[in-house]
């Protein structure tokens, strides 16, 4: 049997922009992608702390150390600049393997989205 478990989590980052006219996705600072083990194109779930919205999109790489967290396309309607969100990705694992799997969870600074 296989189950889905949390693979990666960027806990509480500040939205820096929302671009309705972009084709879609979430732009995430490359430093945060690397630290959380999320790759470009990976499906992610977004949880908006400010308004309770939950939705899915895919990650694209933003400029390294920029703090960029921008929701693009239709997802831009579900956030506002300065909202606090959680970004989560999941993996499908064998049940026994899932029991010992350790996810990558990071806690950036909410003020500037840095890891320091």
Automatic annotation (TrEMBL):
MF-aspect GO terms: aspartate 1-decarboxylase activity
Stored SUPFAM superfamilies: ADC-like (SSF50692)
Catalysed transformations (reactions): L-aspartate + H(+) = beta-alanine + CO2
Domain of life: Bacteria
Compartments (UniProt record): Cytoplasm
Binding site for substrate: 57, 73-75
Modified residues (Pyruvic acid (Ser)): 25
One GO BP annotation of this record: alanine biosynthetic process
Posttranslational mods: Is synthesized initially as an inactive proenzyme, which is activated by self-cleavage at a specific serine bond to produce a beta-subunit with a hydroxyl group at its C-terminus and an alpha-subunit with a pyruvoyl group at its N-terminus.
Short name of one Pfam family: Asp_decarbox
Cofactor note: Binds 1 pyruvoyl group covalently per subunit.
Keywords attached to this entry: Autocatalytic cleavage, Cytoplasm, Decarboxylase, Lyase, Pantothenate biosynthesis, Pyruvate, Schiff base, Zymogen
One Gene Ontology cellular component annotation held by this UniProt entry: cytosol
Family: Belongs to the PanD family.
Reported function: Catalyzes the pyruvoyl-dependent decarboxylation of aspartate to produce beta-alanine.
Subunit structure: Heterooctamer of four alpha and four beta subunits.
Protein name, as recorded: Aspartate 1-decarboxylase
């Amino acid at each position: 049997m296989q189950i889905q478990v949390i693979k990666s989590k960027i806990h509480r980052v500040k939205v820096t922009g929302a671009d309705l006219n972009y084709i879609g996705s979430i732009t995430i600072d490359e430093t945060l992608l690397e630290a959380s083990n999320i790759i470009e194109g990976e499906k992610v779930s977004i949880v908006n702390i400010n308004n309770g919205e939950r939705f899915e999109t895919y990650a694209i790489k933003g400029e390294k150390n920029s703090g960029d967290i921008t929701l693009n396309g239709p997802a831009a309607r579900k956030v506002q600049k300065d909202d606090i969100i959680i970004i989560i990705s999941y993996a499908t694992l064998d049940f026994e393997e899932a029991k010992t799997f350790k996810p990558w969870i990071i806690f950036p600074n909410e003020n500037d989205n840095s890891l320091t």
